[in-house]
Structure formats: C-alpha cells, structure tokens
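Q: Start with the shorter request: fold the first protein.
A: Done. Sequence, then structure:
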Amino acid sequence: QVQLVESGGGLVQPGGSLRLSCAASGIIFNANHMGWYRQAPGKEREFVARINTGGVTNYRDSVKGRFTISRDNAKNTLYLQMSSLKFEDTAVYYCAADPIVFKMMTMRPSYWGQGTQVTVSS
C-alpha cells in the first residue's frame, strides 16, 4: 500500500519559513518523480515544485528563489523548504509521486498524500 505522509505545516507570519516533509512508503522512492502541489480555498490545485529521479528541479514562477525542493532517497523523504512566505502561499500542500514524469507535468500523478495546511498570517 502506497502512503505519502506530509508534515511540517502550520501557522507562520509573512516573511517566515517552514519546512515540509513527505515520508513515502510502498513505492520504490528513487524510481519516482516527486512533487509538491497546493490548493488554496476556492481555487484549483496548482503545481508548486517538482524533482525528478535525477535530481532536476522545476518551480512555479511565484515561488522561484523562495522555495527549495529536495529529496533524500536513503530516507524515502521529500522536502520543501519555504522561506519569505507570503499571504498568497496559504494553502493545503500536497506531496505527489509517479514514475512517469509526464504525469507529474500534467498534474496527474498516481499517488497523492493527504495534505498539510500552511497558513501565512500576521
């Protein structure tokens, strides 16, 4: 059974930082491309960042320079380091995985986590 379990969300002030983690089980972690997506209230889910099996990363424009995605294949864990957080970063953040990169690129990964809430508020 595949499980992706996110943690690290919470309430943070604008300009603050958070580090999200996603612990994976039931998949061959290093054979899967991994990504973070988010969904704000009343909005559609959107791509945030992606890291492929070779470590190549991609980001949505609005988080470039502020967010860093990384993976630890030895720990089967995906990370998202978020800094200089803004009000508009408030959302539920989801971890996702798929061995086919095209499915990640088209927001159709096979595996999703349950999400972790990130709230940026003063």
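Q: Next, the second protein, separately.
A: Sequence, then structure:
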Amino acid sequence: QLQLVESGGGLVQPGGSLRLSCAASGFTLDYYAIGWFRQAPGKEREGVSCVSASGGSTNYLGSVQGRFSISRDDAKNTVYLQMNSLKPEDTAVYYCAATWRLCSSSSNDYDNWGQGTQVTVSS
C-alpha cells in the first residue's frame, strides 16, 4: 500500500525553525516529484514547495522563498522541508504529496497524499 507520512510539526515561536519530514512506504520516491502543501483554517490548500524526481529542480511559493528549503534523500525514501524564520502566517496543516508528473503547485496534479502535520507559529 502506497503511503506518505509527515512528521516534524509542532508549536514554534515566530522566528523559529522546524524541519518537516515526508516518509514513503510501499513505494520508492525515486520516480516521483514531491510537493509540500499547506492549508490554514478557512483557506484553500496552497502549494508551498516542490522538488523534482531527480532532485535537480525545486520551486517555492513566493512568501516562503528564502526561508524554506526542500530536499530529498532517496536512500531514506524521505523528503524534507526545512522551515526557517517562521511567521504566524505560516501556521497551517502541512501535507506532502507525490506525482508522476512534473512539479506543480496544483493539488489536482498529485496522486498520493499524507495525512498532514500541524505547524503552529505563535508566541
């Protein structure tokens, strides 16, 4: 069974850091682009970042550019999202998702989703 599991969320003060992990089981991530999405209460899900299957291409939502960094470790079958200089507006449930297609900011292009991990940025 194909499964993605996110971890690493939590409560952090503004300016703090968190590293989210997205671990795959039942399949290898090698051939998939992996995206991170987030959804805040009352808002639509939005694409935060994506890494290509090769790892050679990444993209970011404008508001997180320079603060977040996505990486993948195919040997561990895991993708990471390093989040620095966190702001209250980063508060959301964060999801990872896999796609056979190229990186996309549209959730409709992704086939497999994790259950999400809560990130709360508050003093």
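Q: Describe the second briefly.
A: DSSP finds no helices and eleven strands in the chain. The CA atoms of residues 59 and 65 lie 8 Å apart.
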